[in-house]
Specification:
The protein is α/β, with parallel strands linked by helices. The chain folds into two domains: about 180 residues, Aspartate Aminotransferase, domain 1 (Alpha-Beta Complex), CATH 3.90.1150; about 250 residues, Aspartate Aminotransferase, domain 2, CATH 3.40.640.10. Helices cover about 40% and strands about 15% of the residues. The protein is built from 16 helices and 16 strands. The strands form five sheets. Strands 2-8-7-6-5-3-4 form a seven-stranded mixed beta sheet, sandwiched between helices. Helix 5 links the parallel strand 3 and strand 4. Helix 1 packs across helix 14. It is globular.
Length: about 450
């Protein structure tokens, strides 16, 4: 059909506050030019993240009424456990309050000084949890990912040649785990092919390395495999996901993405000894093993969400509605990471604001301008998020200066997205007037969440 229609109808509405540009300038100044520090009522279209910001279905809401809030052995836990075991095939399942809790538990056990974690690309919380243990996080995304404009369908893949070189260089005994992030968030929401996952798994087996799947967007990745990788055209999205899980030794998930819930996480494992260590940490920091920081209501909603997310109509609309925004931005001359990924559109801020030097954070400049001009909240994924300093305090920039427009699931309509496109028309018109920013305060870890900025 020519018109991409939402495969759902609206049953409840949430009002949006319409503000003026002058109001938004004042609000952004009070937030120290960091959109994370804005209050949500001052945001018109919120594209900061797709994590926990989606709308739940009537089936999820009705399931929540059945929530069993027993401390141990709740019916709600048994329902969630059954769904997760069927999906992952793993015997040991630990619920957590969100994905970074699962990361902290697993990586604090595996990590430590002298240890290395290898990934196609670590995301921000993954890297922070690894580096907090004094271990090192190494990204080995494929060479094709460096070209934002090529049509290569699986830019989230790991570079197999570099992977083998890193094992030889560091010694397999010093590699704590290999983490495959699907889809690859920091690389533009790009998918990973099953062919690449199988090659990574084979090398892990040959070197006795733990293969961890960061699969918070596993359904979206399965969509791309079915439509872009030969041999999977006739498989269901769930079957493709199960084939991916079969390769994995452990699974970490922020359920706030493809779990279609507002709060929740999972850690599943095959190894009993490792699972016992994780359970001990879970009890200390999250809760008992049959709730792990989640209420019975949360677990009921997640059990339904993990089934709904693999429905054909849902996934088709999810991927195509994101592509709708990306394709229109590209057509108007906005440099975007191509092909469009599953959960977000990534704008190349370095190319769009090519007059702003990297030391003045062009991505942060674009994030602020999008809010001022249209009330859009987005996030920088560049040298604010991933930049480091050398011994003399000089910035070591990130490889890319991107701005992510993450699309919440089942929240905005096409008219909202058309409005976003119109805001970018204003960005193009005034782009030469854009100015950079400097950091006036930053914490030691995950600085982009709470850093303060000042316009130059």
């Amino acid at each position: 059909m020519k018109t991409l229609t939402e495969p759902f109808k609206i049953k409840m509405v949430e009002p949006l506050k319409v503000t003026t540009e002058e109001y938004r300038k004042s609000a952004l100044k009070k937030a120290n030019y960091n959109p994370f520090l804005l209050i949500s009522d001052d945001v018109f279209i919120d594209l900061l993240t797709d994590s926990g910001t989606g709308a739940m279905s009537e089936q999820q809401w009705s399931a929540m009424i059945q929530g069993d809030e027993s401390y141990a052995g709740a019916r709600s836990w048994l329902r969630l456990e059954k769904v997760v075991r069927d999906l992952t095939g793993m015997p040991f399942i630990l619920p957590t309050h969100q994905g970074r809790a699962a990361e902290r538990i697993l990586y604090s056990i595996l990590g430590g000084k002298g240890k290395t974690f290898i990934s196609n690309t670590h995301f921000d919380t993954t890297r922070a949890n690894i580096e907090f243990t004094s271990a090192e996080a190494v990204d080995l995304v494929c060479k094709e990912a460096t070209d934002n404009q090529s049509d290569y369908p699986f830019k989230g893949n790991m570079d197999i040649e570099r992977f083998q070189q890193e094992i030889s260089k560091r010694g397999k005994e010093n590699i704590a785990a290999v983490i495959m992030t699907v889809t690859n968030n920091s690389s533009g929401g790009q998918p990973v092919s099953l062919e690449n996952l199988k090659k990574v798994k084979q090398i892990c087996v040959e070197n006795n390395l733990l293969f961890v799947l960061d699969g918070c967007r596993i359904a979206e990745n399965s969509y791309f495999i079915r439509h872009k990788e030969k041999g999977y055209e006739d498989k269901s999205y769930k079957q493709i996901a199960q084939e991916i899980f079969a390769l994995s030794d452990a699974f970490v998930m922020s359920a706030k993405k493809d779990g279609l819930v507002n709060m929740g996480g999972l850690l599943t494992l095959r190894n009993e000894d490792l699972a016992l260590q994780c359970k001990n940490l879970l009890i200390i920091s999250e809760g008992f093993t049959t709730y792990g920081g989640l209420s019975g209501r949360d677990m009921e909603a997640l059990a339904v969400g993990l089934q709904e997310v693999f429905e054909d109509d849902y996934l088709h609309y999810r991927i195509r509605s994101t592509a709708y925004l990306g394709e229109h931005l590209k057509a108007m001359g906005i440099p975007v990471v191509w092909p469009i990924g599953g959960h977000a559109v990534y704008v190349d801020a370095k190319k769009l604001y090519d007059h702003i030097p990297v030391e003045q954070y062009p991505g942060q400049a674009l994030v602020c301008d999008l809010y001022i001009k249209g009330g859009l909240r987005t996030v920088e994924i560049g040298s604010v998020m991933f930049g480091k300093y050398d011994q003399e305090g000089k910035l070591i920039p990130a490889e890319k200066e991107l701005v992510r427009l993450a699309i919440p699931r089942r929240v905005y309509t096409q008219s909202h997205i058309d409005y976003v496109i119109e805001v970018f028309e204003d960005i193009l018109t005034d782009k030469k007037q854009a100015k950079g920013y400097k950091i006036t305060y930053e914490p030691p870890f995950l600085r982009h969440f709470t850093a303060h900025f000042s316009p130059l």
